[in-house]
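Run log, item B.
One chain of 368 residues. Sequence copied directly from the ordering sheet:
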Amino acid sequence: MIYVSAACPDLPVVVLPENNVVRARTRPAAPVETALTGAIASLTGLRAELLSPDGAGDRLTEAMDRAVDQVGRLAIAAMVAPMDTGPLKPIVPNHTYFGVRTARIDDAYLVSEVTTIIARTLVDLRTARLGLGDRAAEVRSMVQLLSGLLPGGNAPAARPAAAPTRPRTPGAPGGDELTRWVITHHFYFVLNLAAADAVSEAVTALTDGDRDTALDALREATGCVRGFTAAMIHSGDMSAPCYDAKVRPTMQPPAVPVALTGRTQPEHRAFRKAMRRLVAVSPESFGKLAAADPELAVARGALLEADLQDIERHIIVTAALVGDDSSIVQGDDSAESAIATLRTMRHGRAETYRELMRFGDPVTRTAL
């Protein structure tokens, strides 16, 4: 039995790895490897057009069309027989709602799921009303994810995977705002796992004194964070009345047993845990670290800046969609709005990062 998303019943669940690692350790089959290489090249070209000083035009449209085609071909080439998700239990209510399960999966299944998620997101990005910078951030993070599915060196070949018994396509049904909400959250979850993995690698490298690995991992994590911030903006590409009528009611009783909150989302919690470990193993002020290794100090600062901007932009999205209302889990009688709660979280994060950033925010929290 193939279970589906509670929010989008026509969309099969996605299965994420229970070890939270979205990198492949084995080389995919030759046709998939060729398709991966082509998709990465087309996405790299699309990002260049998005950032071109000539601005948007026919070349950008053509680049988007090529990327959508190449990534769609990749997702089809990488497809494997779907798993029986019936026995899999959701970790949190959010997984039931968004149609996510976790299991021990091999690399072929991982490649199938990740490429399908990216293909759906890219198709939706084609019509989303996002700024060019956010589009470029999403596309860059897609390149990072796909590159992680192509291990270099002498990585062993993946075991042959069972092909689907009938033709399938990665496209998502519908195309409405609720579908956009779900498929972009799938992408957001995968990027959170990739960011958590990269930060954890940086933590290990810093602990071991492996400066070059730490530098690369910090830069990798920054790209993932900027990507999942853009995906968050992408998911909220709708009007406040649309969100209030079509999306918000699906995330609270009676549509679901309990009101949903992002605080319990395991993928983002993995990233937050990794960031706390980073601050613990790299507590030097920006000035002190820059005196010893300016490149490393800038890379760490860029990651912290991206993380701070993420919650700041979360506030902006919430203001646009929710306004002065309380969050779903706060209830109507809450003393704070959803924005106020997020702003308190933002200030706490800024206070933690202040000495570690070149231009740290001097805000402090005081009791009134």
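Observations after the first pass:
- The longest strand covers residues 14-17.
- DSSP finds twelve helices and two strands in the chain.
Flagged for discussion on Thursday.
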